[in-house]
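Audit log entry. Action: structure prediction of a protein-small molecule complex. Ligand: coenzyme A. The ligand was supplied as SMILES and no pocket hint was given, so placement is left entirely to the predictor. Protonation state taken as written. Sequence taken verbatim from the request; no trimming, no tag removal. Recorded inputs:
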Amino acid sequence: MPDIKFLSKAALLDKTVIIDGKPTKVLGLASFRTEPRGQGIGKHSLRAMEDIARRKGYAGIFYFCFDDVKGFYLKCGHYLLGRRGDKNIMASFPAKSVEVTEEW
Ligand SMILES: CC(C)(COP(=O)(O)OP(=O)(O)OC[C@H]1O[C@@H](n2cnc3c(N)ncnc32)[C@H](O)[C@@H]1OP(=O)(O)O)[C@@H](O)C(=O)NCCC(=O)NCCS
């Protein structure tokens, strides 16, 4: 096992969700983590993912998160779109309404 000093790991999924009544292609973010934490790696990684989404023609990054990390994403300028069970529905873009029909 190599001695890893900095780690940023995430899965980016090709997804379609209903945003403001319209099917919208989004880059679904899952299993995101950084090591060490609190060093700015998360914020920079999100920016890089937003850039990938933009270049590939997605509306943006879309994901679900628990309450304990919601503040991180809001600090990064993302939006709280709603609630799904015990998780928040978040995205890098604002929306009036959101509907998730696909399995994640
Ligand atoms: C959540 C996570 C990805 C954030 O990455 P990070 O590299 O620690 O975050 P950063 O250092 O880039 O922080 C950016 C800003 O968010 C703030 N922040 C970080 N974690 C926070 C949290 N849980 N709640 C509120 N604010 C938070 C930082 O203080 C920083 O604020 P600043 O810009 O005013 O200095 C990382 O802590 C992590 O891997 N956590 C464990 C796994 C996890 O919960 N992943 C999310 C699954 S949805």
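Audit: result stored. Residues 32-34, 37-43, 65, 68-69, 71-72, 75 surround coenzyme A (CB under 6 Å). The chain has a mean pLDDT of 96.
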